[in-house]
Amino acid sequence: MKKVIITVAAALIIVAAAVAFKNVYSCKIPIRNRGIHDAIQTGDLDVLFIGSSTFRANIDMPTMDEAYDGRVYDISYGGNQLVATSIQYDELKRRSGNDYGLIVFELGPMMLTQEVALSDSRVIWDLTFEGKRELWRSMYAAGNTDFPMFYEYFVTSGMDDLITFPVTEPFYGTRYYKGAKTDETVSPGKAVLEGEEFDISDKSLVKAQADAVVDIIQKCQKDGQEFVFLESPCYHRLQKDPTFIKYREEYIRILEENNAPYILADEVDFESDDPEFFEDMNHMSAKGRRAYTKELIQVFKKRFGTEEGSGND
C-alpha cells in the first residue's frame, strides 16, 4: 500500500510539474516557422502579419521574402480572435525590442461575431503566463470560463504538443514557413465551391471583439507603430452574403471612427470569383495565394512607400 501511495504521489508531482512548466515556459520552447517566439527570433521585420488561418493560407511567404529581403513574418492561428490579437501585440512589444516597420492586422468581418473563447491551443502555447492570464480574464468577462474550460485552458491544452514535441516538431517545421502554409493546396473545382452550403445569418456582434479592434488601434497609435487592417479576399459567394456585408460595414465603421488605415479586398487586383484560386470559402489554393500576394505587395509599395528589397527605407 505504501508503494502504491508513493507511486501515485510521484505521478501527481510529475504531472503538476509538467503543467506548471507548460504554463510558464511553453512560450520559450523553440518552435520553427510559426508563433510569437520564432517571429521575435527572426529579428527586425519590414512587414508582420497577425491574424487567423485566413492569413496563414492566403499569404505566400516566399513571395514576401523575395520582396522584403526576408524581413517578413506571419503570426497566425486557427480561428484567431481579435481579443487574442490584442494580447499577441502586447506580447511582441513586451518580449522584444525589435522594430516592426508595418504590422498588418486582419480585417475579417466575421471575426466580430466570434464568441470569446479558446480557438486554438497554440494561442495560449505562445503566450507568457502573463499573456495567458490576460486572455483568461477576457474569457471570464465574456462568461466563458466554467470549470471544464479552466481545466482545459490551464491543464490539458497544449500537453499533447509538449509530450509529442520531439516527434511532431520536425513535421510542423516543414509544413509552415514563417507562419504561413507551404503545401500545394489545389482548388476542389467550381462545382464544389458553387455548391458548398453555408449559413451565417444567425451570427451577431460580440462587443468584446469590436472593443478589441479599438484596443489594437489605440495601442499602435500610442506606440507610434505603423499598422494597417487588411481584408483578405474570400470566394465571391461569401463576400456577397448579406450578413458578411453587414459586418464588413460595421468593421469599416469602427476603423474609420478611430482613424485607422485599412485595405479592402477589392483594392487588390485579384479575381475572387476564380475557383482555381480557392480551396474553400475563406482559404486560397497555392495558386491563389501566390497571385494574391504578388498584387498585395504592389499595394503595400504604393500605400506605405515600401520598395522591394529595400528594408525599412
Written account of the structure:
The protein is an alpha/beta fold and 313 residues long. It has a domain of 219 residues: Rossmann fold (3-Layer(aba) Sandwich), CATH 3.40.50. It contains 14 helices and seven strands. The strands form two sheets. The chain has a five-stranded parallel sheet, with helices on both faces. The chain has a two-stranded antiparallel sheet with strand order 4-5. β4 and β5 form a beta hairpin. The longest helix is centred in the first third of the chain and has 24 residues. The N and C termini lie far apart (71 Å).
Task: Provide the spatial order of strands within the biggest beta sheet.
Answer: 2-1-3-6-7
Topology order in helix (H) and strand (E) letters: HHEHHEHEHHHHEEHHEHHEH
| Full CATH superfamily name of the domain at 30-119 and 176-304 | SGNH hydrolase
Report the mean per-residue pLDDT as an integer. 91
CATH second-level architecture of the domain at 30-119 and 176-304: 3-Layer(aba) Sandwich
**Rg of Cα set:** 20 Å
Secondary structure tally: strands: 7
Portion in helices: 40-55%
The shape is: globular
Give start-end ranges of low-pLDDT stretches. Answer: 308-313
Number of helices: 14
Structural class: alpha/beta
Concise synopsis of the structure shown:
With 313 residues, this protein is of the alpha/beta class. 53% of the residues lie in helices and 10% in strands.
